[in-house]
Structure formats: C-alpha cells, structure tokens
Amino acid sequence: MNQYLYQNQNQNMNQNMNQNMNQNMNQNMNQNMNQNINQNMNQNMNQNINQNMNQNMNQNMNQNMNQNMNQNINQNMNQNMNQNMNQNMNQNMNQNMNQNMNQNMNQNQMNYQQQNQMINNNNNNNNNNNNNNNRIMEKTQMPKNTRLVATLPHGDVVCAVVTSDPFRYIYTGGKGCIKIWDTLKIKDKSMPVEPIASIDCLDGYIRACKVTPDSRSLIVAGESKYIVICDITKPQPTIQARLQSPPSAEATYSLSTSMDSRYLFSCSSDGCIYVWDIHTSKLIKTLRGHSDSVTCCSMTPDGKLVTGSLDKTVRIWDVGPEKEMTKIDFESQIFSLGVSPKVPWISVGLESSIVDIRYLMDCNNEYKLRGHSKCVLSLKYAPSGDWFVTTGKDHQWIIWKGPYGGLIFSRVEQASILCCDISSCGNYFVTGTGNKYANVYEIDY
Q: How far apart are CA 225 and CA 46, in angstroms?
C-alpha cells in the first residue's frame, strides 16, 4: 500500500511538475512571442515612420530646392530678358535715329539730284554759250527798288537778326538780349516803334539767332558757352532749354537746323560743328575738320551741311555718317556764306571784300563779284533763289542776281552792316547795324 501510495504520489508529482513546466514553458513562449511580435511591430512602425518622415522631408526639400531653383532661373531669365530688352531698345533707338537722319537726308538728296538732272538736261539741249544765264533768269522776278519801312531802335549793336515765317515778327540780337518786334505795329506810323517783348539770353553779344522751320522755337547763341532755346508759341516767349557747349567752345558764331526741326548745328570758335537733338537738348555728334573758328553755315536742299571758317576753307558734310564730303579752298578768311535754294551754287563772303561763287558739282566753275570795299559780313539768298543780298563793313548792302551774280542795286547805311535776313515771302529784308538800329526794307518787283 505504501508502495502504491508512493507511486501515486510520484505520478501526481510528475503530472503536476509537467503541468507546471508546460505552463511555464507556454507562458515563456507566449511572452517571448509577444515580445518579438511587439518588437517587430515597433521596428516596422518605426521604420515606416522614419521612411515616411524621410520621404516627406525629401519631398519638402526637393520642392523647396525646385522652387528656389525655379525662382533663381526665373529671376535670371527676367534679368537677362530685361537687359536684352534694354540693350535692344537702345540699339533700336540709336539705329532708328541714324536711319531717320539718313532717310531724310537721302530723300532730300534724291529730290535735289533730280532737280539738278533736269537742269543738266536742259543745258545739254542748248548750244548757245549764254543759254545758262538766260534759262535761269527766265520767269523770275528781280527787285527793282526798295523802300525803308521802319528803323528799329534796338539800343545796342545789332549782331544778329531773323524773321518769322510767315513774316509777322522780327527778332534782333544785341548784347545778351533778344528784342521782338511786331511788323503790323511798326508799319503803323501813328504808333511808336518799340519792341513788344524781350528775352535776356546770354551774358555776351548774341552772334546768331535762328527760328526753327516749325516756327515753334527761337535758338540763340553767341559769345557764351550756352545756346538758348526759346519757346515762341506763347505771347510772352520763355526760355525752354540751355545747351552747354563743350569747354573748348567759348563762342558760337552761326546756327542751322534740319528741315524737320529736330537737329541743330552750331558752329564754334574751336573749329568744331556740334550736332544737337533739339527735342532732348543733348549733344549727339561732333564734326571735326576745320582748323580755325567756324563762322558761318547753311543747309543745302538735299540735307548737306555747308560750313565756312577762318581757315579759308568751305567744307560740305554728310551729317548722317559724320563724313566730310568736300573741301573748297579760298583766297582769304570766310565770314559769310549762302546756298542757293534752287540750284547747287554757293556764295561765299570773304574778308578780302570779294563774293566768291562756286558750282558745287564742279568747284572750278567760279565767279568773283566785286562791289564791296571791305569784308563781307553777311549773305542771304531770297527763298526764290532769284537774288541774294550781301552786307559789309563798308556800310553797304548789295542785291545781286542769283544764283551767281550781277549787281542789281545797292545802298549805303550809317554804320557797318553786321547781319541781314530776308522774309519767307521774299518781299522784305532786314539789316542789323553797328549804330544800334535794325532797318526794315520793302522790296518792289
């Protein structure tokens, strides 16, 4: 029995032990499994989170980088585009300005050449040696007489004079001041002869004044570094702009403008001709060639600029490409010149008292007119080209047949006649004198 009990006990003990062991083993296995599962899950979760975070970070970084790159690219593209646009605009503006100048001058040149061709064709059809004179003078009106209409008391030496188009106003220049005269009032004998306005322009003497072809501006220059542009569209003219010449140009002796009123040519004491843009008041070109002061200038009908100098030369310029085309030598210093508006002849007033006339197509074709006893100070062609007037230090003005001479009549005034102008209608001319007066003459045909 004891043995049986003992066996039962052992069996029970073994069973209990096995059960406990199995339970413990199962528990441990379960715990280990759970721990492994949890660890794996945590690891997977962490990996996924990290992967997602990394992906998001990479995406954000890539997006930011792309955005920055795009912004930089766009900025660079915009900067480059703006630079290119500005460069192109500047290039186009410069090209257009030169093209416009060249086109206008080329068009004028074509018209002038056609006119000259017609003249040459007519010459070839004539066998008579004197036909040149007869042909040019036919169907023209020559002045027969002049009458003094008014004497304008400027109050100072009148060094420059110009008339408006149409002939309503006369502008006289003395020491620093321009005075404006109304022709309707000066013809009225019941009214005192006095200026209707004045403009203080310069410190020194005014040596040149010019009304632009559009009749909007009066340009004044002289013994000063400044050139003054006045607005004459208002009842009281005002100074619109002051152009400062380069330091070497201590004085300006003559002015001319392009037919479109865009460009101004100023002849200076330093031997240069300066080209200005009237609209912008900027110096755009400099023409160099003369070796002494440039005293006078005029435009040809085809847009060439003709200049005369104390260096005893006349030079003809193609101002578009800034090119000197022709140089003509003379026997003495040149004080004045004029270009015929009809045919290619120029008349030059010399210090020697001679009026020297040259044919531009053949500068050896020359006429010398003798009538003055002292230097010829000013010269002006009538708009018709049929006649021209010269004035001199000998107190005398002379009217000549155009384009190349033949004295019609003359008159002596009380002092040197420094300047003159002819009205756009051709019926009046004005002289400025050293006795502080300007004289207005009416022409009888």
A: 87
Q: How far apart, in Å, are the Cα atoms of 116 and each of 123, 300, 360, 388?
A: 10, 13, 11, 20
**Cα–Cα dist 352/375, whole Å:** 6
Of the candidates 223, 220, 180, 219, which has an alpha carbon nearest to the alpha carbon of residue 203? 223
Please tell me the pTM assigned to this model.
0.71
Q: Which fold has domain 144-444?
A: Methylamine Dehydrogenase; Chain H (2.130.10)
Blockwise average pLDDT, block size 10, the chain, 445 residues = 45 51 50 50 49 50 48 48 45 47 49 46 42 44 95 98 97 98 93 96 97 98 98 94 97 98 98 98 96 98 96 94 88 98 95 97 91 99 97 99 91 98 98 98 97
Taking the CA atoms of residue 17, residue 19, residue 25 and residue 29 in that order, the dihedral angle to the nearest 10 degrees is -170
Query: Domain segments of the chain: what residues?
Result: 144-444
Bridge partner list, 430: 421, 440
Question: Distance between CA 230 and CA 171 in Å, rounded?
Answer: 12
